Amino acid sequence: MKAEVTIRLTFSTEQQAETILESLKPETQNSITTRSRTSLQKEGKHLTLKVEAKDTIALRAALNAYLRWINSILNVFRGLETQ
């Protein structure tokens, strides 16, 4: 792999981090492409997202996908809080 990024995200609760981890775990285990590889690790309220890719285009595509998925899950949390 030629390009990689590691991002540490902090959530409001440990349960939020756990839910996001469990929601995205299948995506990390079955990569659609061989151009990138992603891993997620949880430590308390923190998730560490690591993306490794063969090039910066694949890196950006994978990173954007995971960040959009995380944002969508957070939007669901916000929607449930207002209910």
Brief sketch in words of this structure:
The chain contains 2 helices and 3 strands.
What does this structure look like?
- Helices cover about 50% and strands about 30% of the residues.
- The chain has one domain: TATA-Binding Protein (2-Layer Sandwich).
- With about 80 residues, the chain is an alpha+beta fold.
- The model has no long low-confidence stretch (mean pLDDT about 95).
What oligomeric assembly is this protein in? single chain
Low-confidence stretches: none
Query: What is the number of helical segments per DSSP (H or I, 4+ residues)?
Result: 2
Across the major sheet, the strand order is 1-3-2
CATH architecture: 2-Layer Sandwich
Radius of gyration from the CA trace? 13 Å
| Average pLDDT reading | 94
Q: Which secondary-structure class do the elements indicate?
A: alpha+beta
What would you give as the CATH superfamily? Alpha-D-phosphohexomutase, C-terminal domain
The string of secondary-structure elements, in order, is EHEEH
**What would CATH call the class?**
Alpha Beta
Shape, principal axes of CA atoms: elongated
Please estimate the helix content: 40-55%
Count every beta strand, where a strand is a DSSP E run of 2 or more residues.
3
Task: Tell me the fraction of residues in β-strands, as a range.
Answer: 25-35%
Span of the ends, CA to CA: 44 Å
**Can you summarize the main beta sheet?**
3 strands, antiparallel
Count of domain modules: 1
- From the 3D structure, determine the CATH topology: TATA-Binding Protein
